[in-house]
Design a protein that fits this description.
mainly alpha; 0% strand
Amino acid sequence: MMTGRLKTRWMELLGYAGLIPFLGLAGIAAWFYHTPMADLYGGYNLIYGACILSFLGAVHWGIAIAQAAQPEASYRAGLSDEKFEMLAFGWGVVPSLLAWVIVAFAPDGYALWLLAAAVALVGVIDHRILGSMKGFEDYLKLRTRLSALATLGLLVTAWAI
Protein backbone atom coordinates (compact mmCIF):
# COMPACT_ATOMS: atom_id res chain seq x y z
CA MET A 1 0.00 0.00 0.00
CA MET A 2 1.38 3.39 -0.96
CA THR A 3 0.76 5.63 2.00
CA GLY A 4 3.01 8.53 2.80
CA ARG A 5 6.19 8.89 0.83
CA LEU A 6 8.52 6.27 -0.55
CA LYS A 7 11.63 5.74 1.55
CA THR A 8 14.05 5.91 -1.40
CA ARG A 9 14.44 7.68 -4.73
CA TRP A 10 14.61 4.50 -6.82
CA MET A 11 11.35 5.23 -8.61
CA GLU A 12 12.67 8.57 -9.88
CA LEU A 13 16.19 7.32 -10.58
CA LEU A 14 15.09 4.30 -12.60
CA GLY A 15 12.24 6.20 -14.22
CA TYR A 16 14.53 8.92 -15.56
CA ALA A 17 17.17 6.36 -16.52
CA GLY A 18 14.47 4.67 -18.57
CA LEU A 19 14.31 7.79 -20.74
CA ILE A 20 17.89 7.33 -21.94
CA PRO A 21 16.95 4.85 -24.70
CA PHE A 22 13.92 6.90 -25.81
CA LEU A 23 15.84 10.15 -26.09
CA GLY A 24 19.21 8.70 -27.07
CA LEU A 25 17.77 6.63 -29.90
CA ALA A 26 15.70 9.62 -31.01
CA GLY A 27 18.86 11.74 -31.14
CA ILE A 28 20.75 9.12 -33.13
CA ALA A 29 17.84 8.64 -35.54
CA ALA A 30 17.62 12.41 -36.02
CA TRP A 31 21.37 12.56 -36.65
CA PHE A 32 20.98 9.98 -39.42
CA TYR A 33 17.74 11.60 -40.68
CA HIS A 34 16.05 9.58 -43.44
CA THR A 35 18.84 7.04 -43.89
CA PRO A 36 18.96 3.29 -43.29
CA MET A 37 20.76 4.02 -40.00
CA ALA A 38 17.81 6.15 -38.87
CA ASP A 39 15.51 3.24 -39.71
CA LEU A 40 17.69 0.88 -37.69
CA TYR A 41 17.65 3.06 -34.58
CA GLY A 42 13.97 3.76 -35.10
CA GLY A 43 13.35 0.03 -34.94
CA TYR A 44 15.26 -0.16 -31.68
CA ASN A 45 13.13 2.64 -30.22
CA LEU A 46 9.97 0.89 -31.40
CA ILE A 47 10.96 -2.32 -29.61
CA TYR A 48 11.97 -0.47 -26.45
CA GLY A 49 8.76 1.57 -26.46
CA ALA A 50 6.63 -1.55 -26.84
CA CYS A 51 8.39 -3.12 -23.85
CA ILE A 52 7.82 0.00 -21.74
CA LEU A 53 4.17 0.21 -22.76
CA SER A 54 3.73 -3.38 -21.58
CA PHE A 55 5.44 -2.52 -18.30
CA LEU A 56 2.95 0.30 -17.71
CA GLY A 57 0.08 -2.17 -17.80
CA ALA A 58 1.87 -4.44 -15.34
CA VAL A 59 1.77 -1.64 -12.77
CA HIS A 60 -1.96 -2.25 -12.42
CA TRP A 61 -1.45 -5.96 -11.79
CA GLY A 62 0.99 -5.05 -9.02
CA ILE A 63 -1.52 -2.70 -7.46
CA ALA A 64 -4.25 -5.35 -7.52
CA ILE A 65 -1.98 -8.01 -6.06
CA ALA A 66 -0.80 -5.63 -3.31
CA GLN A 67 -4.41 -4.66 -2.56
CA ALA A 68 -5.43 -8.32 -2.18
CA ALA A 69 -2.72 -8.74 0.47
CA GLN A 70 -4.11 -5.91 2.61
CA PRO A 71 -6.48 -6.71 5.47
CA GLU A 72 -8.58 -3.65 4.62
CA ALA A 73 -9.22 -1.95 1.31
CA SER A 74 -7.41 1.36 1.44
CA TYR A 75 -7.10 2.84 -2.03
CA ARG A 76 -9.80 1.35 -4.23
CA ALA A 77 -11.63 4.66 -4.74
CA GLY A 78 -14.87 3.20 -3.41
CA LEU A 79 -14.92 0.22 -5.78
CA SER A 80 -15.89 -3.23 -4.56
CA ASP A 81 -13.14 -5.86 -4.51
CA GLU A 82 -14.61 -7.47 -7.62
CA LYS A 83 -14.87 -4.23 -9.61
CA PHE A 84 -11.43 -3.09 -8.51
CA GLU A 85 -9.81 -6.37 -9.57
CA MET A 86 -11.70 -6.43 -12.87
CA LEU A 87 -10.54 -2.89 -13.64
CA ALA A 88 -6.94 -3.42 -12.53
CA PHE A 89 -6.37 -6.78 -14.18
CA GLY A 90 -8.45 -5.93 -17.26
CA TRP A 91 -6.84 -2.56 -17.92
CA GLY A 92 -3.44 -4.01 -17.03
CA VAL A 93 -3.38 -6.16 -20.18
CA VAL A 94 -4.51 -3.42 -22.58
CA PRO A 95 -1.13 -1.64 -22.93
CA SER A 96 0.59 -4.94 -23.80
CA LEU A 97 -2.06 -5.72 -26.39
CA LEU A 98 -1.76 -2.22 -27.86
CA ALA A 99 2.02 -2.58 -28.09
CA TRP A 100 1.72 -5.96 -29.79
CA VAL A 101 -0.89 -4.79 -32.31
CA ILE A 102 1.20 -1.74 -33.19
CA VAL A 103 4.46 -3.65 -33.59
CA ALA A 104 2.89 -6.58 -35.44
CA PHE A 105 0.34 -4.89 -37.66
CA ALA A 106 0.97 -1.16 -38.08
CA PRO A 107 1.76 -0.19 -41.67
CA ASP A 108 5.37 0.77 -42.38
CA GLY A 109 6.08 4.29 -41.28
CA TYR A 110 3.21 4.49 -38.80
CA ALA A 111 4.27 2.25 -35.93
CA LEU A 112 6.31 4.85 -34.02
CA TRP A 113 3.59 7.49 -34.45
CA LEU A 114 0.99 5.04 -33.14
CA LEU A 115 3.21 3.93 -30.27
CA ALA A 116 3.75 7.55 -29.23
CA ALA A 117 -0.01 8.07 -29.22
CA ALA A 118 -0.49 4.86 -27.22
CA VAL A 119 2.04 5.95 -24.56
CA ALA A 120 0.23 9.28 -24.21
CA LEU A 121 -3.23 7.66 -24.18
CA VAL A 122 -2.27 5.07 -21.56
CA GLY A 123 -0.89 7.91 -19.42
CA VAL A 124 -4.18 9.80 -19.62
CA ILE A 125 -6.23 6.71 -18.75
CA ASP A 126 -3.89 5.79 -15.90
CA HIS A 127 -4.38 9.28 -14.48
CA ARG A 128 -8.14 8.82 -14.63
CA ILE A 129 -7.94 5.44 -12.90
CA LEU A 130 -5.23 6.11 -10.32
CA GLY A 131 -5.99 9.79 -9.74
CA SER A 132 -9.08 8.95 -7.71
CA MET A 133 -7.17 6.50 -5.50
CA LYS A 134 -5.11 7.30 -2.43
CA GLY A 135 -1.33 7.28 -2.46
CA PHE A 136 -0.44 7.60 -6.14
CA GLU A 137 0.27 11.33 -6.34
CA ASP A 138 4.07 11.01 -6.56
CA TYR A 139 3.83 8.22 -9.12
CA LEU A 140 1.41 10.20 -11.28
CA LYS A 141 3.56 13.35 -11.18
CA LEU A 142 6.60 11.38 -12.25
CA ARG A 143 4.57 9.44 -14.77
CA THR A 144 3.40 12.67 -16.42
CA ARG A 145 6.98 13.82 -16.98
CA LEU A 146 8.22 10.40 -18.09
CA SER A 147 5.31 9.80 -20.47
CA ALA A 148 5.71 13.26 -22.02
CA LEU A 149 9.43 12.77 -22.63
CA ALA A 150 9.01 9.18 -23.87
CA THR A 151 6.31 10.36 -26.26
CA LEU A 152 8.59 13.15 -27.46
CA GLY A 153 11.40 10.66 -28.07
CA LEU A 154 9.09 8.41 -30.10
CA LEU A 155 7.76 11.35 -32.11
CA VAL A 156 11.25 12.62 -32.95
CA THR A 157 12.24 9.11 -33.97
CA ALA A 158 9.12 8.76 -36.15
CA TRP A 159 9.94 12.06 -37.82
CA ALA A 160 13.56 11.04 -38.45
CA ILE A 161 12.98 7.71 -40.16
